[in-house]
Structures are given as structure tokens and as C-alpha cells.
Specification:
By secondary structure, this protein is an alpha/beta fold. The chain has four helices and seven strands; from the N terminus they run βαβαββααβββ.
Length: 140
């Protein structure tokens, strides 16, 4: 079970390190949370922890960004916020990504939850009144 608290932005890299360890080799993660909860910022920190040297940006308009780690692993970063119909997932061939050996990090999975395979770790990011972020693994 993943439960990580991020007290401030200065501790995000430490939280990302703990998160990568907690994944225990699992490669598929869906991140839910309100707008501004820090999904993209946390994914950026996780990518840095995994050895991505290129710039990690939100794929809001492209839907998918691809990154490579120093060890040659591939990370696909999805932002499904702009998905209006489930057919759009089929249009870009989501199966090729979700059922690959690559890492997949998905923001806004609730836009296509029926297509998110059971092997995905579902993580919810919430913002507390004091600005602290909490990442909590949730179960379907």
C-alpha cells in the first residue's frame, strides 16, 4: 500500500524516491486528483528519480509524451483531461501503450476508467488545508 506525504515542494524528490521504491517493479500508474493537486509536478519528480534527463511537461494537448531513462526504459506520460469520448482512446491506440512493457503514467484516468487495466496502480493525490499533499494508493 502506497501512502506518501509531501509536506512541501522542497521534499518532492524525496517523496518521488519513496514512491519509486514503493512501486516494487510495477510499471503502470494512474494518478487522480483535483486540478492543481500536483499530478504533473509529481510525475516530473518521479521521472527525474527514474533517470529521465529530458524536460518532462504535461501532455495536455498532445495527450501522450514519451521519455527515456538513462537505463533505456521508456515512460509514456498521458494526460486524459481533454478526452471527451472514449473513442478518442481507441483513436490514438491506447492498447499499444497500456499493454506494453513500458512505464505508463496516466493523469485524469477517470476520463477513461473502463479502459484502465487492473494492473494499474491507482493513486489519488489530495491537497490538505496546510498545503501538504498526500498520495494514497486506492483500490477499485
Amino acid at each position: 500500500m502506497i501512502h506518501i506525504t509531501i509536506p512541501s515542494l522542497t521534499s518532492i524528490d524525496e517523496a518521488a524516491r519513496a514512491f519509486v521504491l514503493a512501486l516494487s517493479g510495477r510499471t503502470k500508474v494512474a494518478f487522480s486528483g483535483d486540478m492543481g493537486a500536483g499530478k504533473t509536478t509529481f510525475i516530473q519528480a518521479v521521472c527525474r528519480e527514474m533517470g529521465v534527463k529530458s524536460v518532462v511537461n504535461s501532455p495536455t494537448f498532445a495527450l501522450i509524451n514519451e521519455y527515456s531513462t538513462e537505463t533505456g526504459d521508456t515512460i509514456f506520460h498521458f494526460d486524459l483531461y481533454r478526452i471527451n469520448k472514449i473513442s478518442e482512446m481507441y483513436d490514438f491506440g491506447y492498447e499499444d501503450y497500456f499493454y506494453s512493457d513500458a512505464y505508463c503514467f496516466v493523469e485524469w484516468p477517470e476520463k477513461a476508467m473502463e479502459l484502465i487495466p487492473d494492473e494499474f496502480v491507482l493513486v489519488h493525490i489530495s491537497v490538505k488545508d496546510d498545503g501538504t499533499r498526500e498520495l494514497m494508493e486506492i483500490h477499485r
